Amino acid sequence: MKVMCIFHWILSVRDFIMESPEDPFIMGIKSLTDNVVMSSPEVSRQTSRDSAKTTSPLTVSSGIMTKRGPIVEEVEVPFELKLNVSDTQFIVMEESTTWDTNAVILKSTAILNFRPKAKDKILTSTLQSLEVFSCSLTAEEETAQSIIDPLTIHIDLNANPLPKHKLSSSTGLLEASQVHQNNLVLEITFNVMNIRLSYIDMKMFLAILNSIPEQALKATQHDKPTDKAYPADKLSNLHDMGFSMEDCKKALDLNKMNLMEAAVWLTENAVPEERSRSEEGGLHITGMEIKSSSMCVCLIDDCGDSDVPLAEISFNSIQFSQQFLPRQEGSGSFILMGDYYNRKLSGWEPFLEQWKCRCEWKQYYQNMEKKTAIQINAQEVLNLNITSTLLELYNQTKNTWSEDYYKQIVPANSQNQPHQASHAAVSCQRRRVPFVPFMLSNETGCTLWFTTVTTTPRSGRRKGNKDDHYIKASEWKKVESGEKMPFFFHNKEKNRQEKTHELSINQLVVKVDGWMKLSNVTMDRVGVYFRHAEPDVSQAKGLAGLTYSSKHDPSRQKPARLVFDVKQEGKARKLINVRSALIVRNELDSSIDLKMATHSGLEGKFNIMEIPPKGTLPLPLPYVSSMLYVRPSDWPVKYCNQPIQWQNVGLAGEVKERIMKCDSSEGTGVYRFCVSVKRENYPEQLLTEDSSLILPGHTVSIRPPVIIRNLLPIELRYYIRDTQICGTVKAGEKAYLHAADPQQTMELGLNLENFPTCKELVVPPVTTGPQYHKVKIRLYDTKKRLLELLIKIIFRKGGSVSIHVTAPYWLVNKSGLPLVFRQDFSQQDAAGQFEEHELARSVTPLLFCYAEKDLLNLCTMRVGKSVQGPDAVPVWCKRFSLESGTGMRRLNVVPKTGNRPDWVYNIGIGVHQGKGLYADTNIVTFAPLYEIDNQSSHRLAIAQRHLALSEKMKLDTCLIALPQCKLPFHWPRLDLDQLLCVNLLDVGSSSWSGGFRIDKTDSFHINIRDDHNVSHLLKVEIVMEGPTYFIVFGDAGEVPPPIRIDNLAEIPVEYFQSDTTEQKLRAFVQPHVQLPYAWDEPMLSHSITLRVKGGTSATYNMDKLEEGKQLCYPNFIYLRASATSANPTQDSPHTDLVLEVVQDQYIKFCKKEVGNRNQLWRMTSGGMLEHEGSISPRDPHNRSSYPSGKSMVLDIDDIAPRPGRIVPLTLRKRDERRKATQTWKFTEDGRLCCVDGAMCVQTLGGVECLRDSAVAVVGPGPPSGRSVPAHMKIDRQRLLPGSGCLAVRTVMDGPIRVLQITDVSQGSVAEVTKNYQDWVVCEEDKVAEIENKSAEKKSSLEICMSLKGGVGLSLVNYTPEELVYISLQNISLDYISNPNYLTVDVAVANVQVDNQLFTATRPVLLYVTPTPRRDIPENTPALHVVAQKIPNSKWNAEIYKHLIVSMKKLSIQIEEELLWKLLQFCGFGSADHMDEKVTEGEDPRKALAAATSVKTKRYYFGLLKIHTSRINLSMLTASKLSPDLKALKRDMSLPLVRFEDAKVDLDPFIKSHLFETIVFLQKEIGFHYTEELKSQAAKILGSVDFLGNPLGLFNDVTEGISGLINDGNVGGLLKNVTHGVSNSAAKVVGSLSDGLGTLNMDKNYQDRREQLRTSAQSSGGHILAGVKGFGNGLFGAVTSIFTQPYDGFKEDGIEGFVTGIGKGVIGTVTKPVVGVLDLASGAANAIRDTSSSSSRISPPPIRLPRCCHGAGMLLPPYSQNDAKSQKLLHDLNKKNLDEFFIAVEQLRREDRLMSLITSKQVYFLLGGEADSGNIILKVPHKELFQCVMVEIKGRYYLELVRLPTSASDQQRVPQIRCDKQTVAERVSQQINYARNLFEEQQHTLTSTEAEET
Description:
Strand content: 35-45%
Helix content: 10-25%
Number of helices: 28
């Protein structure tokens, strides 16, 4: 059955099932219950519960015997449910409204067995052939794409699982108690699950997921149109509180949808409904187990024009168990592997090698916090392979996927509906376009037939041509000439990409009409392959049917060479061009006609083909041996007078050129072109007399004879003297001179704009081989000033000439001002500058050279005269160099009249060398030193500080920056302080900000206040790009403020920056407010002064985090009649009565007046009430100004209190004797009493008289037990809230410095700040709300990883060869994350990086320096990283409390070759030589970098510390590099010098409270370490080889002496001194011999020396190498006088012979000297090695270099055995890297005979030792026909059949006995595979080195 998941329908069904049917008995039961009175509630409960069970009335209980009735056995029938559902499909659709839509289908056959009473398996279920696939519903079969391959899953619910095997000992009683727990474990097992996910599937899943909620919503809306009015979230919140839905809706209606009010209303007016707990029935699953042998996830890239696998990750032998009850815990183990698909080679390569891992996890609650702990353990090394192919694949996929994804998102979000419909249709259509992986293009010029064959690498070769009849005629496909045909090797199946793992080889069989069928060609790898085709005499038509029909003699048909050029087209398709091996390439600027005349005796028969400019054309096969003639299509000239010859170029890689000409049909002019014929790397052939038998393998390039390339930024006019040749060339373009003859002398002249005259340059004729000249040409402008341009002339052998025109300097003026330049001390301006340069800036770059040779090469400049008008004189600036770096110059303009100071312009100067072809030019950019970039949303006014402060400054006169605008800035006055001020124009009358510096990189906030004294903050970033400082303004909302003032006290506090004096910069921070702040004056000291009104003030330094000085304020009290303050609403004159002193001593009750000091009192610590109004105001800080004697206190107007009598109150001076009447206390019942408590203050005349100006007296209190009457109640009321003392401290809250003000009485500050935890500036109640929320869901996660094996990273480049192996051993990682913080602690016990190149002399690149034996071994890890991060969601920032990285002492030994290869791996040098583009617009990169700095994410570090210990650095330079590395070295222009063991100490990088962008941080760290390295330059210089490493010698001697003093170690001293001296000797001698060796200019000799030196590893090896070097020198001296002239003659003819004699003579002298020096250096090296101490010896490499060539040339997983065998091969073949290892196998046990199969030959050797004496047989593949296994008398032999040679004698066939048949079979297969591979390699074209252009 098919089940469509259509929500509307499913919901209807659900509602129908859930609807409770009407109960027909309900009326009857009602009437019954009315009549019957229940006996007891117990009974009613019983009946209701048992109504479901049908119990017999007799069996009341089967437990205890009862009297009623006999016992009847209850027979329980076991219940069993069996359910078979066969072939069911669940279909989920993307769009449920149309039939033509994408769908995902789950298809399965299920068998379900349910036995609730069973003892063990309660439920068993089997899902057979379960599969998931996607398709389009209209065409399910054709479009089906498997997502999960069919598999069978068993699911059991086991009530009696096997007990877990626990390692711990028995736990006694606990164990017994656990037995009774009912276990119910869900067990899931399956064998292999293959999941295939493609990009389009993922997009479809997303579309389905997005459409499901819509479908569901539509369905629910159809059902319940009523609920729409209520917001769902509010309803559910109220419903969760336990109230019924009806009540919730009612509450929301009454309270206008306000959630809080509705909740309050419900709690008061509604009763929560009873909800039954649904925990009674159901099955409690206590655990789950999953077992599987393999689960494999394959990612497929079918985005855009491809459909190929991307990567595959497989989990093998998975065991996973999870326990739910009694506590959540689980464990799992699996083996992980990962491969990626190499598209160029069509096969899989590993990126994650097999790795076994075990993890455990558990969840528990602790202090109301949910904790999850995960532990991961692995003993094995996690090996990752990072290859260049993988990186390229990653980048390519990322780009195409993201591009495609965002392209589709755009229409989906737009509102219009039709768009969406079309989008859905498009996605369906897209699914059905099948991807065709191969395309064959026929360029042979004949009809071609082909068919496909698939074989595996191990199946042997097919012999002979007997298999023709196997290929049915129907399988041949026909491709006409010039057609393209797409084809597959496999038809598309549902289980896509399934066969990709068995390495199948896809081959093509091709037959061209007129030739025999070719042998198979493999199509999987990108490359150029060729085959030789024999003529098919039986049916050769030859040229018939091509252009003419003639009787062609089939026997005249020639053999041909066919080329298969396999390229990757798009992202994954392979395009196969089948063509001939002769290519004509047109490098002219016009099309050419190629005439092919066949000399088959038929005159005048020819064919003409056109080749477009820059196009290439392979010649049609029948015309390969024809005569070739060329002419330009659009010139009126004839074909060239001689045919083009290519047959005479016979050596691979050889190039010959000659000039040919076409005569004009009119008879005057001549059209010349150069023909360059290059022989590609095809197998060489003997040059025979019959040139028609020579197979072509050439590229014929048609080039112009003379090229002029303009590398100037302006147009150039050229002419050749005494000819009519002239023309113009635009900047960067080329001119082709076809009339010029490079074999004659030419005089070249050049003109530029304003440079009419020129001294012509003589270009000599091309004579010998490639040459290269650099000369200068002189041009003169209209004022006869000289400009010299550089001319580079490149001659090609026998052929064309290229002339490059460059200038030494371009001066690019981007300053916005007219600038004039001249050479320093010169009397005239530089050439090319005229009046207009004084008036305005020149847009084109100015060409500059140092014209006067006797002056210094320095330049100077001034501003144009127009800048300040005629009344001012511009002055020349201080001279500057044009060579490199950045700088700055001030340009002054002096006024002629008045005494105003000079106008000054700051100009930044940036110099960089041109790239690529422009390398000879220095490009000098002049830009303003300061550029303002307003990225904020405000309009800004900008001015220098003195102008901003002046009174007459008007806003419209200063510089105005609109949002998103950039403008240059120059200081108006340089004699005044250079500080910048900013003002906001769009905020009403604001004042200027403080001044700030702009001449150093920085980032800070500025504060601008408006007239209401509100601060507006702006973010300022000062970034240096090139010579310019960009001052970028941005809105402050994106980043946290630098300072915040938190007033947690009860009174407002005034704050201001300490050194500011203006009143307008002072403001109050109100109680309970958090106020962001930035410095008003950034240049003044960073401290804030706080002041309390009427109290003290203090200053706090914000740079110090500390507790500051406390603030005090006098807090006076009013003595208030309590009864008069009860109701504040009525405003009668008798409310708020307080005690006031009238006429200095009488005391009355008066109305409270603010500011009346006569009503204020202070209570002293002794209990006296001092009167404030009777003494003068005091300074609250100065305690001494409290005149204790003078103060007046409250007293009675009598000598002593009289009990029972009323006495008036008065003021008296303090008096010890009257202590009894001057001491007061407030009682608990609210009275103010004398110290004895009998008398209390009250109004005269009782309660009625309690009104304004009532007299205050002291009288007896109320009788005991009675309540206190109103007129006696007196309390204190404070004048100001708070205690009168404030604590202030500076703390950090993330990146914000907080000045915190708290009242002392509030207790510890920590309590208070807790409420302000979040960085949100908000009111208190909000804070509390946030607290509650976070308290509910606290959860934390702990991950503990222990990788004992560690991680290994293998870097492999394109070649493929392994560059380095990075090994991080024994890693432990602890990760803890909870809502408040996240901490990570990573420790790596040991770090080692091995140099895996085969040519490496130092196999270890980086290792931890071993400590000498006498030091205690440290147990600290080699690398340790600790970080703590605080979560933050408000700002665009990451906050780290600390990040500390520490390393042990490291030794680094860099080899030059590896260094360049690593740089190449990282992508340097791959970019084509970028040509300079000097555009007028701003350089976009710089502008972007500057702009994004405000928006980019920032990182805050409370503490950032990178601690590096001492590093021992060594650098080994290489004597020769491959051409690509040479080019990279040239581009990077890094000079390297050889040195050893330089001990470099780098200071740690420590910064606290950093808050910067990642780019800035990287710059900071980079800058710190570059500076540190520079400071250690002396140590590096002291270690260089040519000085003999003097520092090393010094260190050795000091180490020896310290050993002698500390340990009395005499041997150590000797050893160290020996080591130091021999090391120095070896180095000096080695450097000398190298220098002399290069003198003799003999490349072969140098190579031999290098080989001898690098092969020596041990001390014995060094001596041997020295002796061999000495012999090599003597031998060289004797022979060089003969060999050198011979080699020279072979290369260059007579000229070479002469130079050879010279080289030979030099060699005879220098080589013996070099030999002696080599011997000395070898001996010294040997002594050094034997005397080096253990702490100096580097550790052995972790593993041997990997073998990088597997089956199909793919990278195989690392194998120790293969690596050993590869090393064995290199030992045998003296490190010949062209021969690589394929396979090794042991053939016999007894004498350990093994076969070593390589790409060139098969070795059979004994014992597996690398000794040439052990080789018993060596068969090269080129002699081998095949290898077969034969059985003779029950023994198995390998028989190696060789190819028959011309000699007639019968060759003996070697037979090798093997132990087993399987071994023999396997080895014969391997040998045949290698033999096939060799043959394929022979027929593969390798590119020759490109010639220098």
